[in-house]
Queue: 2 jobs
Job 1
Amino acid sequence: MDIRDIFDIELTSFSTFILLASSLFMALAVSAIHKGNLKSTRWMLFGTIVFGAIFLACQVYEFTHFVHAPGNELTLSSYRGQPHVFGSTFYVLTGTHGTHVAIGVFWLIGWLAYSFTGKMSSVHAIDVEICGLYWHFVDVVWILIFPVVYLMEYAF
Amino acid sequence: MSGHSEDPVKEESERFFTFFNLSMLLVAITGIEIVIIYVRSFEGSTIFTVLAVCSVIKFIGVMTWFMHLRWDKILNTILFLMGLVIAAFTFFAVIYMADDTPVVEKFVISQIGKKWESEKVYKVGDYIENNNTFYIAKADHKSGQNFSVKTKNFQAWKKVQGIPHELIWKVSTGNLIEINSLKPENPFFHQYHPSKTDNIEGSKISLLAENVVAEDFRIKVRSEASWVEGLNQ
């Protein structure tokens, strides 16, 4: 089997860029709340949410494309109609990461909504920062998954 | 948590450029990763090394600045890295525990192409030797009385450059078999991805410059955790 037949490196590279950019937004959101700049915090949180959502959309598109790729169908238990372990490994690994991104997006939406209640201030900097640490960790995990799962296929 | 000094506002303003520059660096490194994949002229080991180094740099960048461990107590960094070490240890433990070391049960190299014989049925792909020159059959046919340019049957043969050899191997397990020559006269290289996990047998015909035996070649079998080399006759 050659899994490179179904990988779309352009799409995955784009979603990697999006996730890296979302980490910048997150870092700036933490920075803004520390400075007590609520307006900037909102925009940065919004940017992180949008980029996180784009990443998830890319993953949903990718999974759908893989499952229905004509002649190259990759399901949880098979590849090209033959039993194969790669599908379960791939979907569980990247799917678990995607689930964590989704959790992060909902967490950020919570903070964005809270920022409109009028109760948010620099007192909550530590809370937003914890959310940021979670987001960066999800980013760090993708930094490892991207070369190991996608790019390393081209090395051997 | 992020180790702020007495003026967090000033400090955060200074960090803005750090975050932005780091972000640009991460994108640039990702670009390098993509380019090295697209430029298909690098060897697997080179690609692996570059990707590993790029990932480590990106990992350290995000961990140090975005997760601001740089400005935190050293204990936080130690705790963070401890998790990484445990994860790495678990990964390698699982890989090695589940791995079967391959055994090269058979590796034989033999010259093929017997002397041409008259009145014999030859099939497409058969090799023969005549006057120290090797030929391959282009079509199924029955040989005549003479092997000569003037005969009709001669058209059924094509001259080959080199000495045809058959390489036969059998290994117990493994997911990649690599065979390469130790002699510069025979720059042969072959990679084979077995589709089964046991009783892996294969063969390949190759035209070589000189007569060889298995000692002139190296067979390497890769499992998940190791490379095994064999030179069995």
Job 2
Amino acid sequence: MQRFYPAIRKGEGAFSTSDNMLPKCFVNIDDYSREDIFRILESAAKFKQRPNRDLLEGKVCATLFFEPSTRTRLSFETAVNRLRGRIIGFSDAATSSSTKGESLKDTIMMVSNYADLIIMRHHLEGSARYASEISPVPIVNAGDGSNQHPTQTMLDLFTIYETQGTLENLTVTVVGDLKYGRAVHSLIQGLSHFSPTFNFVAPEELRIPDKYKAFCDQKKIAYNEFTDFSPESINSADILYMTRVQKERFTDLMEYEKVKNIYVLHNDMLEKTKDNLKVMHPLPRVKEISQDVDDNPKAYYFQQARNGMYTRQAVICDLMGIIVD
Amino acid sequence: MRKELQVAALENGTAIDHIPTEAVFKVVSLLQLQKLDHRITIGNNLKSSKMGKKGIIKVSDKFFREDEINRIALVAPNVNLNIIRNFEVVEKKKVVLPDEIIEIVKCNNPKCITNNEPMKTRFHVVDKEMVELQCHYCELKIRKEEIELM
């Protein structure tokens, strides 16, 4: 297969140090440098070409989902299954010893006796970072409360690269709940290495928090803010990243009623968009993308979800020091 | 005119001067003075030409380690620290906020792992001048006025 990512030179990036120490864990997208990201994307592209491999033969991966998440868990478990790894774990904290009062530390220490790698989702923020500091085996953060979900960001970056042929200098319009949207916050961090321009489109109550604007300023990233979902913000975009505007996020329900139909993408709104535009969404979608968009070739959210599996295969192999040919 | 000392003189030990009045008992707590059997004098709401009112803490025969004393910077970054031997000030120090704060500050995020697991808290000092901390675990940023001690 043609190598379409820049080659990583020896000595670059946090993971290509002289002693060749691999990272033990993937907790936060910020832990990964630009070179690390490219290394993962390169592997993910290989898995997309050929997802079924024997790379985890004889290995056991644990999926500890203290908080239920069917979609993410299935993606991770399929990734492991397609690599011939075995899976242990639980999909609901009710079936784990945490309901008996067991500490996270004890659960991690116990499971690490059995598994070669732990994939965990937990409702408490910082839980994955803590687990990474105590676990003798690699930890993959599959979401810690509203804090981080780094494999979502990695699959978003893979999808952007795949569809645009580059990560550099793209205009990314993000729409919806920019205040609480974890996927959006991490995407801003993940793309920060690549000189993007952001259009932030959100109702007043769900505007992008100041700390992310300060982050953009610090990284010299250009951004525009919109409170209306205007043709200007859509037609200038290379990527249109839609998110859900959830009723429960509003303190003023009148405000929700006013905006609930504004941040909905319809097919006719894509008429004057760039040829290379792709519409992305972390899913699940509710009403923010009309069904009539699904057949438009610019709709890419289902392929994006599928890319999650390849990206997770790449992350798991990377953490276990497995070279992907 | 004879200058009258507001707090008794110290023969040997540490005098912490110019403590903001609202921070005096936080300093007591940060230095764990309640656990010491040394002679301790605490003065508060004393007259100060610089501050209007101030607090002073004098601890006899006690010389704190740097990492102990630097904790004070969390609540009172501008205190004067005087090391006293034989009634003379032999050394004046300023407190310096460390890069990392472990086990002293509570995270204000109830959903942070540190508030739900028997473990030490850990904060990175992201702004030494404004005293802004960031939780190592949940990444919440805490401003000086929001700091809650353990």
